[in-house]
Design brief:
This protein has 545 residues and is an all-alpha fold. The protein is built from 31 helices and four strands. Strands 1-2 form a two-stranded antiparallel ribbon. Strands 3-4 form a two-stranded antiparallel ribbon. α15 packs across α16. The longest helix has 21 residues. The chain starts with 5 loop residues before the first helix and ends in a 17-residue tail after the last helix. The structure holds calcium ion (CA) (2 copies). The site of one calcium ion has 7 residues, from β3. InterPro entries: EF-hand-dom_pair, EF-hand_13, EF_Hand_1_Ca_BS, EF_hand_dom.
């Protein structure tokens, strides 16, 4: 192109030094050039009028005359390669507005440039080019609509499943839809069915289902959002404990691992309650009884539900649903609640774990420092409160537990634990050590040990954040108010160390519950065999505390 115009360029005599910044044609999309030929003419004549252009063309002609092998294209692109590394481009010099971001998607240049080494070598340049950025719509007020393909796929499945004279399904038949179309755990089926069957007709029609699931954009939501949407009550922005009851009821009615409870509805209720308390203990971190979508997404409930749906042995579902875990919690409560009025008082709780706890910490629990009791009986702890206590006591590595005990020790509630506050609790431990003729450890030494374990930001106090950042925080609490666990920690109980090594993926709670379940079931065996003479008690299985 440049050679064919040499005659017009020849008169250009003014030679100044080359300014590569003025030669930035590669910055312009060929697509833009094609669609605006006038612009091309303008640019080209501007380029021609540059003294450097005349200089370049002249030297090329001289080379040609002298018979030197010339590669005009190579020369040309060389000059431009230098130019393309620097800004501003020629566009800025002619004050042209940037091109619409949309046009770049069809531009062959933009796709070519992505793979060229110069583009790869300069990520900054890629981002600075407005033509590179195409941001797809990402916010939809009523949820992201399904793609045509996904919609068709679902509709064909729906048509197949609803293909009957009624054009609808009864509650039991609906389960297949829950599993195959919605891809949700089967024990959520009744809850979903009732959500769609608003008039309680006992049937969900094909059209009603499509309106709710496909047209309502439920299809494209993530599982947590789907479950949140249909479990919550209309107009609410959270889930409460009550909202979980229907799914627990269905799990109890259908899960093979829970069938044996069908003749004891009382225990079904207790199991359901316990699972719900455990879910809220771990997931409702604000502690206000209102589980938000954000909290639901952060926790492990959805994967636990999916596991419970696939696993016939409910005891393998360690998060929330294990029957054995429920059994251990409930038996402990029953054991302490001697008059079986379903409440325990301070004197009952002090017996927990072979009198492991101090009076001072038990008093703090009963003053409701870590958590307000759910029941309203003065000075009494209900079952739900006990579940919170027990989970905190048996797994001090979990965050809800650290928060629970932190509030207990923080006597003045100012958000930091001071040596004085810790000493208040430790005094009673020290006294108990003396009574049991154990070698007492002075508070000063204990404080040093605690500071070493936690490595707090400030040396004069410990924050909740400090505790959350240390793996040894649970031991600090045991030092302060649980004598049995303090001693076990100090002597590095081989039993515990062996258990930890056996399966490091288990939580402290999982190990405790497993150990306790074995112990409790052995006790039951002993009771059953009380008429016989054989002593079936195995000392090695006894809990170390
Ligand atoms: Ca009682
Ligand atoms: Ca404090």
């Amino acid at each position: 192109m440049s050679l064919s115009l040499k005659m017009e360029i020849d008169p250009v005599e003014d030679v100044t030094c080359l300014n590569p910044e003025l030669l930035q044609l590669p910055e312009v999309s060929p697509f833009a050039l094609k669609t605006t030929p006038l612009l091309v003419d303008d640019l080209f004549s501007q380029w021609l009028s540059l003294p450097e252009t005349g200089n370049l063309v002249k030297s090329l002609i001289n080379d040609a005359k002298a018979g030197t092998a010339v590669n005009a294209c190579a020369n040309f692109s060389n000059v431009n390669a230098v130019g393309s590394n620097s800004l501003p481009s020629m566009f800025s010099s002619v004050n042209a507005p940037p091109l619409s971001p949309r046009s770049s998607s069809g531009s062959p240049r933009s796709s070519k440039q992505k793979s060229s080494p110069s583009a790869l070598g300069s990520p900054l340049k890629l981002f600075s080019d407005p033509m590179q950025e195409v941001i797809p719509q990402f916010y939809f007020q009523n949820g992201c609509p399904p793609t045509k393909e996904l919609k068709e796929q679902s509709l064909s499945k729906i048509n197949h499943l609803f293909n009957n004279p009624l054009n609808g399904l009864l509650i039991d038949e609906f389960k297949t839809v829950t599993k195959e179309v919605c891809k949700l755990p089967s024990f959520l089926s009744s809850a979903l069915f009732r959500k769609i069957d608003v008039d309680c007709m006992g049937i969900v029609t094909r059209d009603a289902f499509i309106t709710y699931w496909v047209d309502g954009n439920m299809l494209t939501m993530d599982v947590a959002t789907q479950i949140f949407e249909f479990l919550k009550r209309p107009g609410h922005k959270h889930l409460t404990q009550v909202d979980f009851r229907p799914i627990l009821r269905e799990l109890l009615a259908t899960h093979p691992g829970l069938k044996f409870l069908q003749n004891t509805p009382e225990f079904q209720d207790r199991y359901a309650e316990t699972v719900i308390y455990r879910i809220f203990y771990h997931m409702n971190r604000s502690g206000n009884g209102r589980l938000t979508l954000r909290e639901l997404k952060r926790g492990e409930l959805i994967s636990a539900m999916q596991q419970a749906d696939e696993e016939d042995d409910i005891n393998k579902v360690l998060r929330y649903f294990s029957y054995e875990h429920f059994y251990v919690i409930y038996c402990k409560f029953w054991e302490l609640d001697t008059d079986h009025d379903f409440f325990i008082d301070r004197e009952n709780l002090i017996r927990y774990g072979n009198h492991a706890l101090t009076y001072r910490i038990v008093d703090r629990i009963f003053s409701q420092a870590p958590r307000k009791f759910a029941g309203d009986v003065e000075g009494k702890m209900g079952y739900e409160d006990f579940v919170y206590f027990m989970l905190s006591e048996e797994d001090k590595s979990s965050e809800p537990s650290l928060e629970y005990w932190f509030k207990c020790i923080d006597l003045d509630g100012n958000g930091v634990l001071t040596p004085n506050e810790m000493q208040f609790f430790y005094e009673e431990q020290l006294h108990r050590m003396e009574c049991l003729a154990l070698e007492p450890v002075l508070f000063e030494d204990i404080l040093c040990q605690i500071i070493d374990m936690i490595a707090p930001e400030r040396e004069d106090c410990i924050t909740l954040q400090d505790l959350k950042g240390s793996k040894l925080s649970g031991n600090v609490f045991n030092i302060l108010f649980n004598l049995n666990k303090f001693v076990a920690f100090e002597t590095r109980d081989p039993f515990l160390i062996r258990q930890e090594r056996e399966d490091p993926t288990l939580t402290e709670w999982d190990r405790f519950a497993h150990r306790e379940y074995i112990r409790l079931s052995m006790e039951e065996d002993v009771e059953d065999a009380s008429n016989g003479s054989a002593d079936v008690w195995d000392e090695s299985l006894e809990a170390p505390f």
